[in-house]
């Protein structure tokens, strides 16, 4: 069950504070680009060596595993838990660190609820997600250090989640 940090209406990047469990302001978005989906993390996951190995990165980003949740209806608040079904993901490499973005659909959603795999989603939607993540950290005048290398199917996404759960157990125990 993902926890939402950002809605498509937010122009502020929030992140979970690992010590307190509260959301904190990470940074205002530099551009006018808005997230094309609900954005948050999967609790009790951590991106480290197991996640990095799946995508060929040097290491994980040291954060909980990110997730985008598609919903037909606007959800305008964060800090809520949603029930969602994983359908795929994006392999994101941020300066050599694995920063995968899992893609899911809100359970029982009237438009996206039928999707079982990333191939069930329109190509334009995946393109928007890729574009957003390829550009959301860009700073004018600086070379981007982030690449969105590829998308992957549900089966691989479930392996990424399992690897992030293993990394969490290694880092924090039960």
Structure characterization notes:
By secondary structure, the protein is α+β, with helices and mostly antiparallel strands. The protein has helices at residues 49-55, 123-135, 154-172; strands spanning 3-6, 12-16, 23-28, 38-42, 59-60, 65-70, 84-94, 97-98, 101-106, 146-153. The strands form two sheets. Strands 1, 4, 5, 6, 7, 8, 9 and 10 form an eight-stranded mixed sheet that branches. Strands 2-3 form a two-stranded antiparallel ribbon. A hairpin with a 6-residue loop joins strand 2 and strand 3. Helix 1 runs antiparallel to helix 3. The longest helix has 19 residues, at 154-172. The radius of gyration is 15 Å and the shape is globular. The two termini are 18 Å apart.
């Amino acid at each position: 069950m993902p926890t939402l940090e950002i809605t498509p209406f937010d122009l502020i990047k929030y992140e979970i504070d690992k010590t307190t469990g509260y959301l904190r302001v990470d940074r205002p978005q530099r551009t006018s680009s808005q997230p094309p989906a609900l954005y948050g993390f999967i609790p009790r996951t951590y991106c480290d060596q197991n996640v990095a190995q799946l995508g060929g990165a040097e290491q994980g980003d040291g954060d909980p595993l990110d997730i985008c949740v598609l919903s037909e209806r606007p959800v305008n608040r964060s800090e809520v838990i949603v029930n969602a079904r994983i359908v795929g993901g994006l392999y994101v490499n941020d300066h050599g660190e694995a920063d995968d973005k899992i893609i899911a659909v809100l359970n029982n959603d009237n438009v996206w609820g039928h999707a079982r795999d990333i191939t069930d989603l329109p190509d334009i939607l995946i393109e928007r997600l890729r574009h957003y993540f390829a550009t959301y950290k860009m700073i004018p005048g600086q070379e981007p250090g982030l690449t969105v290398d590829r998308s992957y199917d549900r089966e691989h996404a479930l392996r990424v989640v399992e690897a992030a759960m293993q990394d969490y157990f290694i880092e924090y125990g039960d």
